[in-house]
Amino acid sequence: MIIDMTELQAINSFSRLESLKGVYDHIWLLVPIFTPVLGITIGILVIVWLERKISAGVQQRIGLEYAGPLGILQALADGTKLLFKEDLLPSRGDIFLFSLRPSIAVISILLSYSVIPFGYRLVLADLSLGVFLWISIASIAPIGLLMSGYGSNNKYSFLGGLRAAAQSISYEIPLTPCVLSISLRAIRFAVFVISSLAECERLPFDLPEAEEELVAGSQTEYSGIKFGLFYVASYLNLLVSSLFVTVLYLGGWNLSLPYIFLPHFEINEVGGVFGMKIGIFITLAKAYLFLFISITTRWTLPRMRMDQLLNLGWKFLLPISLGNLLLTTSFQLFSL
Amino acid sequence: MTVSATRKDLMIVNMGPHHPSMHGVLRLIITLDCDDVIDCEPILGYLHRGMEKIAENRTIIQYLPYVTRWDYLATMFTEAITVNGPEQLGNIQVPKRARYIRVIMLELSRIASHLLWLGPFMADIGAQTPFFYIFRERDLINDLFEAATGMRMMHNYFRIGGVAVDLPHGWIDKCLDFCDYFLTGVAEYQKLITRNPIFLERVEGVGVVGGEEAINWGLSGPMLRASGIQWDLRKVDHYECYDEFDWDAQWQKEGDSLARYLVRIGEMTESIKIIQQALEGIPGGPYENLEARRFDKARDSDWNDFDYRFISKKTSPSFELSKQELYVRVEAPKGELGVFLIGDHSAFPWRWKIRPPGFINLQILPQLVKRMKLADIMTILGSIDIIMGEVDR
């Protein structure tokens, strides 16, 4: 009997070890998933801090001060507060659509991070689609906005949702030819920057949530962490579009300063990893430089009116980007 | 009057009283056809406190601390009109130094009011940053007020026959420093705002009021002057001592929101001009006149006799309003601020009818916003410059 028991125990311990190994494998699988998510989250916190600190600088205030050194932890504190707040639901709204919206907003934008190259061949998912995945995923956003506008049972939300849908449709169209065409880099860059600002619904174009008109647009009825998720989504969107601007127009991971050469590394593992790190660093530095511009823009300019915004999109940006595309294709034809 | 719509199912949106850009507790019921405004019905009264009725059982001195709650951003003007009424009713002479101090305070208050118009107006259009810049300057004005009166906003400084206290030592130099500094501030606003293309697109041709229309609606102040009518009560009525200074009434002829913006910005620099001249030329002498002239009762009482009437800074039962009526008005930053006053041989006014400029100017809002976009409501409402405290009273 005793022998049997020990044998059993031995077998049991074996199987436990086996299961432990399985768990370990699973955890190991989660690491590459959570590393970028963690990185992106930290990026968001940094952007929130930057936005508040830069806006404070623009407005001659002190800004964040108390939560952590220089108020770095303020965004975390705000997030924690929002987590503990009551989750209010509109009494006669469509609760399903209402609750689905924040997750759609965040997840759809998180997905587009997977196609951003941070360095040479350093992409999470090397799809052949590339930037078009971002554009197509960005088209999900208006559906979400319409959902929350409809589901909130609130007229401000409804108007905000409609505005957002109209806005993102009319700015995605000039965005796509900008990505396609190669000629006239400066014009393309300008059009892309304007369209991406409009896509992010940042201040000269923040009509869907224009506080003075629509209270908070489609976010009016949201509270607690659902409301917080909208902020997360908007900053995610800002980061992703500035990363795309960096990759598409500002040279990505190449150091764009002349006469400064990075030490060339041997193709060994250590050198490769170091070069990769420098690439990521340069990409991020450029992206944050661009973020600085868009943040200062937000705190400097007044807001446009809806009809002016649509006019700018359809009558100015679209012809320019289409003409640009035409030029590119004709160059291609002649060069053939 | 409603505008014909393209379809039947219009959206009715209730804006306010708790809406970020309703300047307090204004409520608008707006009928929308997509983004176009078909109809707009303002609903008032959420801040009604019965101020006119309260005035009927207070002496003027008792009532003075309360009047700064009419237009709580241009507080000196409400005090000025409250003391001007009884002064003119009782024919009380104000010493010259007091007149100068009053002009300085009024013009500082005008700047403060215009500043706190500019910030929210820009915020209504979507630019948040000017709000902080205007508070930078407005705080300095409030500091000056605090030094002279003891309070930053609700001063209780004007008295019948003068002001409560003389200017403290060194105040005039501080005020001159402020004038120099403020001119650079205005230049900064001009640089930031006036030629911004998005700003111009938002305000040019929005909320146009013609000259005749403005007169017919009874508009006053910058609303009227922006429509090409050169009507400034400081020039028209020659009250206080405005005639002794060299300044111009600001006016524009376009009548849109941009014109109103330009008029107000111009008025701020003109006010600085007036203040500088007043500070340079302020005479010595008493800052108050505590003796009231008599009309019917005890006309020939001896000075300091039992029957002699002093005005006094404290509640004085012996200062009574004679049985007459009159309408007094001043050029407040928002327009013509007036009081229709009926005395009844008692210390309390029998009737105290306030003519708030914001209330009269607000009447034109429904007509201005029709056929405009939803976002234009905020621009137009902002350019009218209302304070719900005086609209509802």
From TrEMBL, chain A:
Compartments, as annotated in UniProt: Cell membrane; Membrane
A cellular component term, taken from the record's GO annotations: plasma membrane
Alphabetized GO MF terms: NADH dehydrogenase activity
Primary location group: membrane
Pfam families listed in its UniProt record: NADHdh (PF00146)
Keywords: Membrane, NAD, Transmembrane, Transmembrane helix
Membrane-spanning ranges: 27-50, 95-116, 122-147, 229-250, 270-295, 316-334
Entry superkingdom: Eukaryota
Any single GO BP term: aerobic respiration
Membrane topology qualifier: Multi-pass membrane protein
Signal peptide start and end residues: none
Presence of keyword DNA repair: no
HAMAP family linked: NDH1_NuoH
Family assignment from sequence similarity: Belongs to the complex I subunit 1 family.
Name of this chain's protein: NAD(P)H dehydrogenase subunit 1
Organism: Papaver nudicaule (Iceland poppy)
From TrEMBL, chain B:
Organism listed in the record: Papaver nudicaule
PANTHER family in the cross-refs: NADH DEHYDROGENASE [UBIQUINONE] IRON-SULFUR PROTEIN 2, MITOCHONDRIAL (PTHR11993:SF10), NADH-UBIQUINONE OXIDOREDUCTASE 49 KDA SUBUNIT (PTHR11993)
Coiled coil location: none
Family indicated by similarity: Belongs to the complex I 49 kDa subunit family.
Tagged with keyword Lyase: no
Gene Ontology cellular-component annotations: chloroplast thylakoid membrane
Keywords per UniProt: Chloroplast, Membrane, NAD, NADP, Plastid, Plastoquinone, Quinone, Thylakoid, Translocase, Transport
MF annotations from Gene Ontology: NAD binding; oxidoreductase activity, acting on NAD(P)H; quinone binding
Residue ranges occupied by any NADH-quinone oxidoreductase subunit D domain in the UniProt entry: 124-393
NCBIfam families tied to this protein: PRK06075.1 (NF004739), PRK07415.1 (NF005649)
InterPro entries for this protein: NADH_Q_OxRdtase_suD, NADH_UbQ_OxRdtase_49kDa_CS, NDH1_su_D/H, NiFe-Hase_large
Protein name, per record: NAD(P)H dehydrogenase subunit H
